[in-house]
Design goal:
Elements lengths: L2 H6 E2 L3 E3 L25 E3 L7 H16 L16 H15 L9 H4 E5 L9 E8 L1 E5 L8 E4 L11 H5 L9 E5 L2 H10 L2 E4 L5 E9 L7 H7 L10 H10 L4 H5 L6 E6 L16 E4 L8 E10 L5 E14 L8 E8 H8 L5 E9 L2
Helix pairs in contact: 2-3
Length: 365
Protein backbone atom coordinates (compact mmCIF):
# COMPACT_ATOMS: atom_id res chain seq x y z
CA UNK A 1 0.00 0.00 0.00
CA UNK A 2 1.31 3.44 -0.89
CA UNK A 3 2.08 5.93 1.87
CA UNK A 4 -0.77 8.29 1.01
CA UNK A 5 -3.20 5.37 1.22
CA UNK A 6 -1.94 4.57 4.69
CA UNK A 7 -3.05 7.94 5.96
CA UNK A 8 -5.93 9.10 3.86
CA UNK A 9 -8.22 6.15 3.25
CA UNK A 10 -11.25 7.95 4.69
CA UNK A 11 -13.50 6.10 7.10
CA UNK A 12 -16.82 7.55 8.21
CA UNK A 13 -16.99 7.33 11.99
CA UNK A 14 -20.20 7.33 14.00
CA UNK A 15 -19.72 7.67 17.75
CA UNK A 16 -22.56 7.60 20.27
CA UNK A 17 -22.11 10.70 22.45
CA UNK A 18 -22.19 10.41 26.24
CA UNK A 19 -20.72 12.99 28.62
CA UNK A 20 -18.66 10.77 30.89
CA UNK A 21 -15.07 10.80 32.12
CA UNK A 22 -13.01 7.64 32.57
CA UNK A 23 -10.21 7.73 35.13
CA UNK A 24 -6.70 7.03 33.84
CA UNK A 25 -6.37 3.70 35.62
CA UNK A 26 -10.00 2.64 35.48
CA UNK A 27 -10.69 -0.50 33.44
CA UNK A 28 -12.31 0.04 30.06
CA UNK A 29 -16.07 -0.59 30.18
CA UNK A 30 -17.61 -3.56 28.45
CA UNK A 31 -18.49 -3.08 24.82
CA UNK A 32 -15.24 -1.43 23.73
CA UNK A 33 -14.26 -4.28 21.43
CA UNK A 34 -15.81 -2.43 18.51
CA UNK A 35 -16.38 -4.09 15.17
CA UNK A 36 -16.11 -2.04 11.99
CA UNK A 37 -19.11 -2.63 9.74
CA UNK A 38 -18.66 -1.26 6.26
CA UNK A 39 -17.56 2.36 6.58
CA UNK A 40 -18.92 3.02 10.07
CA UNK A 41 -17.44 2.63 13.52
CA UNK A 42 -19.82 2.70 16.47
CA UNK A 43 -18.08 3.52 19.73
CA UNK A 44 -19.50 4.48 23.10
CA UNK A 45 -17.70 7.59 24.40
CA UNK A 46 -17.27 5.83 27.74
CA UNK A 47 -14.52 3.86 26.00
CA UNK A 48 -12.28 6.91 25.43
CA UNK A 49 -9.93 7.85 28.29
CA UNK A 50 -10.13 11.48 29.46
CA UNK A 51 -7.73 12.69 32.15
CA UNK A 52 -6.37 16.03 33.42
CA UNK A 53 -2.93 14.97 32.12
CA UNK A 54 -4.34 14.64 28.62
CA UNK A 55 -5.99 18.06 28.76
CA UNK A 56 -2.78 19.72 29.95
CA UNK A 57 -0.84 18.02 27.16
CA UNK A 58 -3.39 19.22 24.60
CA UNK A 59 -2.97 22.81 25.82
CA UNK A 60 0.81 22.46 25.49
CA UNK A 61 0.37 21.15 21.95
CA UNK A 62 -1.93 24.04 20.99
CA UNK A 63 0.71 26.53 22.13
CA UNK A 64 3.41 24.55 20.28
CA UNK A 65 1.45 24.66 17.02
CA UNK A 66 0.79 28.38 17.35
CA UNK A 67 4.49 29.14 17.84
CA UNK A 68 6.19 26.61 15.54
CA UNK A 69 6.95 27.07 11.86
CA UNK A 70 5.04 24.63 9.67
CA UNK A 71 8.30 23.37 8.14
CA UNK A 72 9.25 21.79 11.49
CA UNK A 73 6.13 19.63 11.73
CA UNK A 74 7.23 17.03 9.18
CA UNK A 75 10.34 15.85 7.37
CA UNK A 76 11.22 17.30 3.95
CA UNK A 77 10.01 14.11 2.22
CA UNK A 78 6.48 14.45 3.61
CA UNK A 79 4.04 14.76 0.70
CA UNK A 80 0.63 14.73 2.39
CA UNK A 81 -1.68 17.67 3.06
CA UNK A 82 -0.34 20.15 5.61
CA UNK A 83 -2.83 22.60 7.09
CA UNK A 84 -1.42 24.07 10.29
CA UNK A 85 -4.60 26.06 10.96
CA UNK A 86 -6.63 22.85 10.85
CA UNK A 87 -4.21 21.12 13.22
CA UNK A 88 -4.74 23.98 15.69
CA UNK A 89 -8.53 23.85 15.26
CA UNK A 90 -8.46 20.13 15.89
CA UNK A 91 -6.58 20.49 19.19
CA UNK A 92 -8.91 23.29 20.30
CA UNK A 93 -11.99 21.24 19.43
CA UNK A 94 -10.70 18.19 21.30
CA UNK A 95 -10.15 20.38 24.38
CA UNK A 96 -13.72 21.68 24.02
CA UNK A 97 -14.96 18.10 23.71
CA UNK A 98 -13.10 17.13 26.89
CA UNK A 99 -14.62 20.13 28.68
CA UNK A 100 -18.11 19.05 27.62
CA UNK A 101 -18.53 22.08 25.36
CA UNK A 102 -19.75 20.13 22.37
CA UNK A 103 -22.06 21.49 19.73
CA UNK A 104 -25.68 20.84 20.81
CA UNK A 105 -27.27 18.03 18.86
CA UNK A 106 -24.00 16.85 17.30
CA UNK A 107 -22.18 13.69 18.28
CA UNK A 108 -18.39 13.69 18.33
CA UNK A 109 -18.47 11.74 15.10
CA UNK A 110 -20.22 14.68 13.44
CA UNK A 111 -17.73 17.23 14.75
CA UNK A 112 -14.53 15.54 13.56
CA UNK A 113 -13.27 13.78 10.47
CA UNK A 114 -11.49 10.46 10.95
CA UNK A 115 -8.98 8.82 8.62
CA UNK A 116 -7.98 5.20 9.06
CA UNK A 117 -4.29 4.45 9.42
CA UNK A 118 -3.19 1.38 7.52
CA UNK A 119 -5.48 -0.84 5.50
CA UNK A 120 -8.96 -0.63 7.11
CA UNK A 121 -9.69 -4.13 5.81
CA UNK A 122 -7.04 -5.56 8.14
CA UNK A 123 -8.20 -6.56 11.61
CA UNK A 124 -5.23 -4.80 13.28
CA UNK A 125 -3.47 -2.65 10.65
CA UNK A 126 -1.33 -0.54 13.01
CA UNK A 127 1.79 -1.73 14.84
CA UNK A 128 2.09 -0.54 18.44
CA UNK A 129 5.27 -0.35 20.46
CA UNK A 130 6.02 1.10 23.85
CA UNK A 131 8.97 3.15 24.98
CA UNK A 132 9.96 4.33 28.42
CA UNK A 133 12.73 6.14 30.26
CA UNK A 134 15.22 3.44 31.29
CA UNK A 135 17.53 3.82 34.30
CA UNK A 136 21.19 3.06 33.65
CA UNK A 137 23.71 2.60 36.47
CA UNK A 138 26.88 4.65 35.90
CA UNK A 139 29.89 6.18 37.62
CA UNK A 140 31.87 9.30 36.82
CA UNK A 141 35.14 7.59 35.90
CA UNK A 142 36.12 4.47 34.01
CA UNK A 143 37.09 1.27 35.78
CA UNK A 144 37.55 -2.39 34.95
CA UNK A 145 33.81 -2.91 35.50
CA UNK A 146 32.48 0.44 34.31
CA UNK A 147 34.20 0.53 30.94
CA UNK A 148 31.44 1.55 28.52
CA UNK A 149 31.38 5.33 27.90
CA UNK A 150 28.11 7.25 27.53
CA UNK A 151 28.91 9.90 24.92
CA UNK A 152 27.66 13.34 24.01
CA UNK A 153 27.79 14.26 20.33
CA UNK A 154 31.05 15.61 18.87
CA UNK A 155 30.94 19.16 17.53
CA UNK A 156 32.05 18.43 14.00
CA UNK A 157 30.69 18.40 10.48
CA UNK A 158 32.83 15.40 9.56
CA UNK A 159 31.17 11.98 9.21
CA UNK A 160 30.85 10.25 12.57
CA UNK A 161 32.18 6.73 13.19
CA UNK A 162 30.05 3.60 13.20
CA UNK A 163 28.90 1.90 16.41
CA UNK A 164 31.66 -0.69 16.06
CA UNK A 165 34.33 2.00 15.65
CA UNK A 166 32.99 4.05 18.56
CA UNK A 167 32.89 1.08 20.89
CA UNK A 168 36.45 0.21 19.83
CA UNK A 169 37.62 3.66 20.94
CA UNK A 170 37.23 6.01 17.95
CA UNK A 171 35.98 8.83 20.26
CA UNK A 172 38.14 8.03 23.27
CA UNK A 173 39.95 10.86 25.13
CA UNK A 174 38.09 13.66 23.32
CA UNK A 175 36.26 14.92 26.40
CA UNK A 176 32.92 13.54 25.21
CA UNK A 177 32.25 11.07 28.06
CA UNK A 178 29.24 11.98 30.21
CA UNK A 179 29.67 8.90 32.43
CA UNK A 180 30.66 5.24 32.30
CA UNK A 181 28.34 2.23 32.64
CA UNK A 182 28.83 -1.46 33.37
CA UNK A 183 25.80 -2.58 31.35
CA UNK A 184 26.20 -2.45 27.56
CA UNK A 185 22.81 -4.09 27.00
CA UNK A 186 20.77 -1.51 28.91
CA UNK A 187 22.96 1.20 27.40
CA UNK A 188 22.05 -0.06 23.93
CA UNK A 189 18.33 -0.02 24.71
CA UNK A 190 18.60 3.46 26.20
CA UNK A 191 20.00 4.50 22.82
CA UNK A 192 17.04 2.85 21.09
CA UNK A 193 14.70 4.78 23.38
CA UNK A 194 16.62 8.01 22.70
CA UNK A 195 16.64 9.20 26.32
CA UNK A 196 17.02 7.89 29.84
CA UNK A 197 18.04 8.37 33.44
CA UNK A 198 21.55 7.60 34.64
CA UNK A 199 22.05 6.72 38.30
CA UNK A 200 25.30 7.19 40.21
CA UNK A 201 26.41 4.97 43.15
CA UNK A 202 25.21 7.58 45.69
CA UNK A 203 21.69 7.40 44.21
CA UNK A 204 21.88 10.71 42.38
CA UNK A 205 20.22 10.65 38.98
CA UNK A 206 20.66 12.73 35.83
CA UNK A 207 18.22 12.91 32.95
CA UNK A 208 19.76 12.47 29.51
CA UNK A 209 18.05 13.61 26.33
CA UNK A 210 18.68 12.85 22.67
CA UNK A 211 21.63 14.83 21.27
CA UNK A 212 21.87 13.34 17.79
CA UNK A 213 23.19 10.24 16.05
CA UNK A 214 25.65 9.17 13.41
CA UNK A 215 24.50 8.77 9.82
CA UNK A 216 24.19 4.99 9.84
CA UNK A 217 20.64 3.60 9.42
CA UNK A 218 18.91 1.80 12.26
CA UNK A 219 18.91 -2.01 11.98
CA UNK A 220 16.79 -4.24 14.22
CA UNK A 221 19.07 -6.55 16.18
CA UNK A 222 16.04 -8.73 16.93
CA UNK A 223 15.61 -9.38 13.23
CA UNK A 224 19.35 -10.00 12.87
CA UNK A 225 19.18 -12.57 15.66
CA UNK A 226 16.18 -14.23 14.03
CA UNK A 227 17.84 -14.36 10.60
CA UNK A 228 20.96 -15.94 12.11
CA UNK A 229 18.94 -18.48 14.09
CA UNK A 230 20.15 -17.06 17.40
CA UNK A 231 16.70 -16.22 18.72
CA UNK A 232 14.71 -19.34 17.90
CA UNK A 233 11.28 -18.11 18.91
CA UNK A 234 8.74 -15.80 17.32
CA UNK A 235 9.13 -13.39 20.22
CA UNK A 236 11.36 -10.51 19.09
CA UNK A 237 10.51 -8.28 22.07
CA UNK A 238 13.21 -6.27 23.79
CA UNK A 239 12.87 -8.45 26.87
CA UNK A 240 13.51 -11.58 24.81
CA UNK A 241 16.55 -9.96 23.19
CA UNK A 242 17.86 -8.83 26.60
CA UNK A 243 17.57 -12.31 28.06
CA UNK A 244 19.32 -13.98 25.11
CA UNK A 245 22.20 -11.48 25.16
CA UNK A 246 22.77 -11.91 28.90
CA UNK A 247 22.95 -15.69 28.43
CA UNK A 248 25.25 -15.43 25.40
CA UNK A 249 27.85 -12.75 26.24
CA UNK A 250 30.25 -14.13 23.61
CA UNK A 251 27.80 -12.94 20.92
CA UNK A 252 27.20 -9.51 22.48
CA UNK A 253 29.51 -7.43 20.30
CA UNK A 254 28.46 -9.18 17.11
CA UNK A 255 24.75 -8.67 17.73
CA UNK A 256 24.93 -5.06 18.94
CA UNK A 257 27.21 -4.12 16.06
CA UNK A 258 24.66 -5.45 13.58
CA UNK A 259 23.11 -2.02 14.19
CA UNK A 260 25.81 0.50 13.27
CA UNK A 261 23.57 3.44 14.23
CA UNK A 262 24.79 5.18 17.40
CA UNK A 263 22.83 7.66 19.54
CA UNK A 264 24.46 10.47 21.56
CA UNK A 265 23.04 12.10 24.69
CA UNK A 266 23.09 15.41 26.51
CA UNK A 267 22.30 16.23 30.16
CA UNK A 268 18.80 17.67 30.54
CA UNK A 269 17.97 20.01 33.41
CA UNK A 270 14.20 20.18 33.08
CA UNK A 271 11.58 17.56 32.22
CA UNK A 272 12.10 14.92 29.57
CA UNK A 273 11.01 16.27 26.20
CA UNK A 274 10.04 14.66 22.94
CA UNK A 275 11.55 15.40 19.52
CA UNK A 276 9.07 18.27 19.11
CA UNK A 277 10.36 19.89 22.33
CA UNK A 278 7.16 19.18 24.27
CA UNK A 279 7.20 17.33 27.61
CA UNK A 280 6.49 13.62 27.31
CA UNK A 281 3.28 12.50 28.98
CA UNK A 282 3.01 8.83 30.03
CA UNK A 283 0.17 7.11 28.23
CA UNK A 284 -0.44 9.88 25.70
CA UNK A 285 2.78 10.97 23.97
CA UNK A 286 3.15 9.05 20.71
CA UNK A 287 6.21 8.62 18.53
CA UNK A 288 5.47 8.53 14.81
CA UNK A 289 7.29 8.61 11.50
CA UNK A 290 6.74 12.30 10.73
CA UNK A 291 7.39 11.74 7.08
CA UNK A 292 3.91 10.20 7.26
CA UNK A 293 2.20 11.82 10.26
CA UNK A 294 3.03 15.48 11.11
CA UNK A 295 3.87 16.57 14.63
CA UNK A 296 0.80 18.12 16.23
CA UNK A 297 -1.53 15.44 14.87
CA UNK A 298 -4.09 13.78 17.12
CA UNK A 299 -4.74 10.07 16.89
CA UNK A 300 -7.61 7.99 18.23
CA UNK A 301 -6.07 4.60 18.97
CA UNK A 302 -7.52 1.23 19.90
CA UNK A 303 -5.23 -0.65 22.28
CA UNK A 304 -5.98 -4.33 22.84
CA UNK A 305 -5.06 -4.96 26.49
CA UNK A 306 -3.73 -8.37 27.49
CA UNK A 307 -3.34 -10.23 30.78
CA UNK A 308 -0.23 -11.84 32.26
CA UNK A 309 -0.65 -14.83 29.95
CA UNK A 310 -0.70 -12.62 26.85
CA UNK A 311 -4.43 -13.11 26.24
CA UNK A 312 -6.41 -10.07 25.04
CA UNK A 313 -8.97 -9.33 27.75
CA UNK A 314 -10.29 -5.88 26.77
CA UNK A 315 -9.96 -3.03 24.28
CA UNK A 316 -9.09 0.50 25.33
CA UNK A 317 -9.53 3.59 23.16
CA UNK A 318 -7.16 6.45 23.76
CA UNK A 319 -6.37 9.88 22.36
CA UNK A 320 -2.66 10.02 21.46
CA UNK A 321 -0.58 13.11 20.67
CA UNK A 322 1.96 12.81 17.86
CA UNK A 323 4.84 14.84 19.29
CA UNK A 324 7.77 12.41 19.23
CA UNK A 325 9.72 10.86 16.38
CA UNK A 326 10.24 7.25 15.42
CA UNK A 327 12.65 6.61 12.57
CA UNK A 328 12.74 2.83 12.40
CA UNK A 329 10.56 0.72 10.10
CA UNK A 330 9.92 3.62 7.74
CA UNK A 331 6.91 2.98 5.54
CA UNK A 332 5.14 0.91 8.21
CA UNK A 333 2.32 2.39 10.28
CA UNK A 334 4.00 2.10 13.65
CA UNK A 335 3.05 4.12 16.72
CA UNK A 336 5.15 4.17 19.88
CA UNK A 337 3.48 5.04 23.17
CA UNK A 338 5.51 6.55 26.01
CA UNK A 339 4.80 4.62 29.22
CA UNK A 340 6.89 6.30 31.94
CA UNK A 341 10.14 5.67 33.85
CA UNK A 342 12.12 2.63 34.97
CA UNK A 343 10.68 -0.80 35.64
CA UNK A 344 7.14 0.53 35.98
CA UNK A 345 7.34 2.04 32.50
CA UNK A 346 8.76 -1.18 31.12
CA UNK A 347 5.98 -3.22 32.75
CA UNK A 348 3.29 -1.02 31.20
CA UNK A 349 4.53 -1.93 27.72
CA UNK A 350 3.60 -5.55 28.33
CA UNK A 351 -0.04 -4.59 28.89
CA UNK A 352 -0.98 -3.79 25.32
CA UNK A 353 -0.96 -6.08 22.31
CA UNK A 354 1.50 -4.90 19.62
CA UNK A 355 -1.13 -4.32 16.94
CA UNK A 356 -4.50 -2.61 16.72
CA UNK A 357 -6.38 0.15 14.95
CA UNK A 358 -5.88 3.91 14.88
CA UNK A 359 -7.43 6.93 13.21
CA UNK A 360 -6.08 10.36 12.40
CA UNK A 361 -8.51 12.83 13.94
CA UNK A 362 -9.15 16.25 12.37
CA UNK A 363 -11.62 19.07 12.90
CA UNK A 364 -14.66 18.87 10.67
CA UNK A 365 -14.26 20.61 7.34
Amino acid sequence: MQRKELLYAAVGVLLMCHVAVQAADAPAPAGCDVQIQGASLTLDEHCIRKTPELRNALVDMAVYLQTTDVSRLATPDYHGPMDKARLIRTVEQVIAWMDGKTVPGKSIGQQFDFYALGNPQDKRPVQYGGYFTPILDVQKTASAEYRYPVYTKPKTDAPLPSRREIMQGALRDKGLEIAWTNDPIEYYFMQVQGSGLIRYPDGKTQLLGFAGKNAYPYVSIGRYMKENNYLRTDNLSNNAVRQWLRLNPDKLDEVLNANQSFVFFRPVKDVLRSASGLPVVPGYTASVDNSMIPFGSILLAELPIRDMDGKIVQHEWRVLLATDRSSDDRGAVRIGIYTGEGEEGRAQIQRFFPAGRAFLLQSGS
